[in-house]
């Protein structure tokens, strides 16, 4: 079994963090005499004063620090700073400042990217999309909520969530002004720990030009779309507009750690996790996977000593952050990943490092043993969620592994159809920022969608937009919503922050214990057959076989089973 470690809002936050997003990652291009940035992890037991003195002696200047974990972003003009700093008794590890996680990139044209998001298919969208069912107008298109009984006749009736329960979305941001999100969005508690990065070390675009003079986006903005979709799935309210989330009455907090481009840097991720702990957030959703290393390997012979040291630093720093959050009562939920691989087996990675921190850097092929770590899904005390489609099968793209997957949840599978051809409505429908739909030319002059994957719903003069996406990024927020309902139902008053609180261990036990057990398919080696539309109008047959190991209630496809909102809060 792959070793489980690493990654996973009105109170005055403790001194654990520096001011968020004032000094986000800058260019990491360096040579002697040119400024570069590093992430430095202090050794356990070393005081901040000792660490500061050591870093200064090595020629570094601290620009950002998290004392809860002992992690600092350090700028230096000395080309040998990284090598020298690793020799310091006060330092546990040093890494070149770069992305450690990525929200899967969303594509509108190419099929079968590892994001597993496909935004083409049948049926355009407006009010009444899907069969008419009780609930908000687009509830008929939410097969996902029907599968886990998060419906007007299901969990909404028993426990729709408590506004005192805080759910942090560690992602690319939340469109807090979306008409089907804003009622549940807490702007005051929200934070943005990122700063836009126009280009990488090779000059290739990362986030592109800054939208704001400070290059720091407001806490109610999402220029990527990923975080908004996730937040909506968790907690869009029951308000007679569009659709509702799993826990329609809980409070959403933007704890942003992702760039507009979807990259996640070590310091913002650690800051986001520890902020959630200090601010009294009950549950966090982490629908991203790690970059630049898809897997972090402490001693892979395929990696240079510097790369090995960098990956060890990432592991140690994020382990500390996860442990800190767990001690402070945060339930952490993560997407399992979209690589269609068994995490308990040896695999090959040819995509890392995929963020250019030094000129000329490029990915290379390396063998990945089970001892390597994917973050945050393999993190200590993190609930890893695989994805299922409308039929209940594991989605064709979802990662899996017996002992890796904790639970499963609807994430969509657009090929889960009778003929094996794509149907966008078999994805997950959730909120979409109108600003992005307009900027991408997906709306007509009158505001109606001109692409099949975007849906509009209007209530009076208020209109809102939604889109179909698929991925384990879409499965994870379903489990996060169920966790929020469990805290709402069984939590007790939080004496430190007010609101409600419940031990993360209890939340996980209830979630796993009330999940619908699902056995492996028979035969256990399941072959997926898809017919992928080509540019010339023909279909290409694509097959892949994934083998499920373990019994019902404890197997590699579904873990303890598919989460169930109604069962989790009692019938």
Assigned CATH class of the largest domain = Alpha Beta
Which residue ranges are poorly predicted, with pLDDT under 50 across at least 5 consecutive positions? 1-32, 106-128
Question: Architecture of the largest domain in CATH?
Answer: 3-Layer(aba) Sandwich
Instruction: Categorize the overall geometry.
Output: globular
- Nearest-angstrom radius of gyration? 22 Å
Q: What's the rounded overall pLDDT mean?
A: 88
**Biggest sheet, in brief?**
7 strands, parallel
What would CATH call the homologous superfamily of the largest domain?
Answer: Peptidase S8/S53 domain
**Distinct helical segment count:** 11
Return the domain count.
2
- SS-based structural class? alpha/beta
Q: What is the fold named in CATH at topology level of the largest domain? A: Rossmann fold
Main-sheet strand order equals 7-8-6-10-11-14-15
Instruction: Tell me which oligomeric state these chains represent.
Output: single chain
**Number of E-state strands:** 22
What is the helix content? Answer: 10-25%
> Could you tell me the strand content as a percent range?
15-25%
User: How far from one another are the termini?
Assistant: 35 Å
Keywords: Hydrolase, Protease, Serine protease, Signal
Organism: Actinoallomurus spadix
Protein name: S8 family serine peptidase
Family: Belongs to the peptidase S8 family.
Compose a concise summary of this entry.
This is S8 family serine peptidase. Residues 163-518 form the Peptidase S8/S53 domain. This protein has 571 residues and is an alpha/beta fold.
Per-chain topology:
Blueprint: E1 36-42, H1 48-57, E2 60-66, E3 71-76, H2 81-86, E4 91-96, E5 99-102, H3 143-147, H4 155-158, E6 166-169, E7 191-192, H5 226-235, E8 251-256, E9 263-265, H6 266-279, E10 283-286, H7 305-327, E11 331-335, E12 347-352, E13 364-368, E14 382-388, E15 407-410, E16 428-431, H8 434-439, E17 454-459, E18 462-469, H9 472-490, E19 492-493, E20 500-501, H10 504-514, E21 525-533, E22 539-547, H11 565-569
Parallel strand pairs: 6-8, 6-10, 7-8, 10-11, 11-14, 14-15
Antiparallel strand pairs: 1-3, 1-4, 2-3, 5-9, 12-13, 16-18, 17-18, 19-20, 21-22
């Amino acid at each position: 079994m792959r070793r489980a470690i690493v990654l996973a809002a009105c109170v005055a936050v403790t001194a654990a963090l520096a001011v968020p997003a004032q000094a986000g990652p800058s260019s990491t291009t360096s040579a002697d005499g040119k400024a570069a940035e590093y992430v430095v992890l202090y050794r356990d037991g070393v005081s901040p004063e000792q660490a500061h003195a050591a870093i200064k002696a090595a020629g570094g200047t601290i620009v950002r620090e998290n004392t809860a974990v002992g992690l600092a972003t350090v700028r230096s003009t000395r080309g040998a700073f990284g090598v020298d700093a690793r020799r310091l008794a006060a330092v546990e590890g040093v890494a070149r400042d770069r992305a450690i996680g990525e929200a899967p990139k969303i594509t509108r044209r190419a099929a079968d990217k590892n994001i597993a998001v496909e935004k083409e298919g049948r049926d355009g969208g407006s009010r009444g999309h899907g069969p008419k069912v009780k609930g908000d107008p687009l509830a008929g298109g939410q097969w996902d909520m029907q599968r886990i009984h998060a419906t007007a006749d299901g969990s909404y009736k028993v426990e729709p969530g408590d506004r005192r329960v805080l759910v942090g979305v560690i992602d690319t941001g939340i469109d807090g002004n979306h008409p089907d999100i804003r009622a549940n969005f807490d702007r005051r508690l929200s934070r943005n720990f990122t700063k836009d990065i126009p280009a990488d070390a090779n000059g290739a675009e990362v986030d592109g030009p800054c939208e704001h003079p400070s290059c720091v986006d407001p806490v109610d903005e999402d220029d990527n779309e990923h975080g908004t979709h996730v937040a909506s799935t968790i907690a869009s309210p029951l308000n007679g507009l569009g659709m509702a989330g799993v826990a329609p009455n809980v409070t959403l907090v933007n704890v942003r750690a992702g760039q507009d481009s979807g990259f996640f840097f070590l310091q913002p991720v650690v800051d986001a996790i520890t902020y959630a702990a200090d601010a009294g957030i009950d549950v966090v959703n982490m629908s991203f996977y790690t970059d630049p290393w898809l897997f972090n390997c402490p001693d892979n012979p395929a990696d240079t000593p510097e790369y090995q040291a960098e990956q060890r630093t990432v592991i140690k720093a994020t382990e500390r952050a996860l442990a800190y959050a767990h001690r402070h009562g945060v339930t952490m939920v993560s997407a399992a990943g979209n690589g269609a691989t068994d995490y308990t087996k040896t695999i090959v990675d040819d995509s890392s490092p995929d963020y250019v921190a030094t000129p000329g850097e490029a990915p290379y092929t390396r063998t990945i043993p089970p001892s390597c770590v994917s973050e945050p899904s393999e993190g200590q005390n993190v609930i890893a969620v695989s994805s299922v489609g409308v039929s209940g099968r594991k989605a064709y793209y979802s990662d899996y592994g017996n002992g890796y997957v904790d639970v499963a949840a609807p994430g969509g599978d657009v090929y889960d159809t009778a003929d094996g051809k794509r149907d966008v409505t078999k994805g997950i429908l959730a909120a979409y920022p109108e600003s992005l739909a307009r900027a991408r030319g997906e709306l007509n002059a009158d505001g109606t969608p001109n692409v099949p994957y975007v849906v509009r719903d209007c209530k009076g003069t208020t209109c809102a937009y939604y889109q179909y996406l698929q991925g384990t990024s879409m499965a994870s927020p379903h489990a996060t919503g169920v966790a929020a309902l469990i805290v709402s139902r069984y939590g007790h008053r939080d004496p430190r922050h007010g609101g409600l609180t419940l031990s993360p261990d209890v939340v996980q036990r209830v979630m796993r214990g009330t999940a619908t057990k699902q056995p492996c398919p028979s035969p256990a080696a399941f072959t997926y057959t898809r017919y992928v539309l080509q540019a010339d109008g023909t279909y290409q047959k694509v097959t892949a076989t994934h083998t499920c190991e373990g019994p019902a209630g404890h197997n590699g496809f579904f873990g303890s089973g598919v989460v169930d909102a109604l069962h989790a809060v009692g019938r």
